[in-house]
Amino acid sequence: MKRFTLETLAKMAGVGIATVDRVLNERGGVSPQTTRKVLQAARAVGLKRVLPQEYQHPWQIEVLLSSNDAWFFKKLAQDFIDVANGLGYRRITLHRTFMSESHPQKLAQHIIECSEKRDGIIVFAHDDPALYDALAVCKARNVPVITIVTDLPGAERLCHVGINQQQAGRTAGLLMKKAASQPGEVLTISGRFDYRAHWERVAGFREVLQQRAPWLILREVLAGQDQRDTIRRLLEENLARCSNLVGIYNTGVGNAAISEALARHRLAGKCLYITHELYSTTRRLLEEDAVSFTLDQNAQQHAQLATQIMLNYLETGHQPEAYQDGKVELKIITAENLC
C-alpha cells in the first residue's frame, strides 16, 4: 500500500502509521476500539482491498452488581448470563462481580482496575463521590460505563438503563390515592437511602399523596435500609401507634416480614399494600390478596438493553441518548394479570 494512503488513514483514525499497518495486515496488538477507528477510516476512503474482520476476540464486559440477597439482583445476575449465552462466547465474555453497597471506595477501586482490562463496564452503584471519580477515569481511558437500575446523574457514563424511579413512586402514589378513598394513615418503608432509586420512589409517592389525597395522613418514612430485622422492628413500633392504617408502600425488600406483621395485627387484606418486583413471595401475596399491587421493573429487560447498548457502542460507535435508549417499562401487576 502506498505510504500516502497509510498516512491518510492514520490521520483520520488519530493513530500512527504502524498501527494502521498492524490492523490492515492483522498483526495483532491493537485494541478493539482502535481497530474499529482504523477500519472505519478505511471504509470511508473506499480502500480497495479486503478488510480484516473487525473483532478478533470477544468483548470483555464487566457487570458489577449488589451482593445483597434481594430477589431482583439474583434474577438480574442470571439474566445477564442468559443474554451473554444467547450472543455466544465468540462475541462477548461476561465477567460478573458482586460487591456490598457498604464499601463504595472498594467498588470505585475495582471499577478503575477494570478500566485497564475490560472493553466496557455495566454497574449498579449508589451516589458516592468516589464512584464519580472512578467513572471519570474510565472516560479518560475510553472505557464506556453504563449505570443500571439506579443512576449517577452527571457522572461520566455512556447512558443509564432502568425504569424512571420517581415515576414508579408517583404511580404507587396514584394507585394508593385511587384505592384508599377513605381517610386514614399511610406508612412508607424505604430501602437503602444511599441509593437514588429508593429516595426517588419515596419522593414521587409522597408528592402525589400530598398534592392529590389530603384525606390520607403520611407518617414518617421508615428507614428499613433493606434489613429485614430493622423492618420488622420499625413496623411493629409503628403499627402499635397507628389507629387507622389504610395503606403501606414498600420500596425495597422485606415483603414477607411486612405481610407477617400485617397478619399479626389483623390488617392483611384490609390495608392497601403496594410493593415492588414480581417473584415467588409477592406472587403468593397477590394470590392471597395480602398485596394489592406490585410494580415490576423487569430484570430481564435491564440485562438485554444494557448489553445491547454496550455492544452497539463498541461495535459501531453509536452514542445512545442518556435515558431514552435505556428506558425500561414499568409493569403494574395485580392478582388478575399474574404471568
List the helices and strands and how they pair.
Blueprint: H1 3-13, H2 17-24, H3 32-44, E1 59-66, H4 71-87, E2 92-99, H5 104-114, E3 120-123, H6 129-140, E4 145-148, E5 159-161, H7 165-179, E6 184-190, H8 196-212, E7 216-218, E8 222-223, H9 228-241, E9 245-250, H10 255-264, E10 272-276, H11 280-287, E11 293-296, H12 299-316, E12 331-333
Parallel strand pairs: 1-2, 1-3, 3-4, 4-5, 6-7, 6-8, 6-9, 9-10, 10-11
Antiparallel strand pairs: 11-12
Report on the structure:
The chain has helices spanning 3-13, 17-24, 32-44, 71-87, 104-114, 129-140, 165-179, 196-212, 228-241, 255-264, 280-287, 299-316, and strands at 59-66, 92-99, 120-123, 145-148, 159-161, 184-190, 216-218, 222-223, 245-250, 272-276, 293-296, 331-333. Strands 6, 7, 8, 9, 10, 11 and 12 form a 7-stranded mixed beta sheet that branches. The longest helix has 18 residues, at 299-316. The protein is built from 12 helices and 12 strands. The chain starts with a helix and ends in a 6-residue tail after the last strand. Helix 1 packs across helix 2, helix 4 (71-87) crosses helix 12 (299-316) and helix 5 runs parallel beside helix 6. The mean pLDDT is 91. With 339 residues, it is an alpha/beta fold. It is elongated, with a radius of gyration of 24 Å. 45% of the residues lie in helices and 17% in strands.
**What is the H/E string?**
HHHEHEHEHEEHEHEEHEHEHEHE
The structural class is alpha/beta
Instruction: Using the alpha-carbon principal axes, give the shape.
Output: elongated
Radius of gyration: 24 Å
Poorly predicted regions: none
Percentage of residues in helical conformation: 40-55%
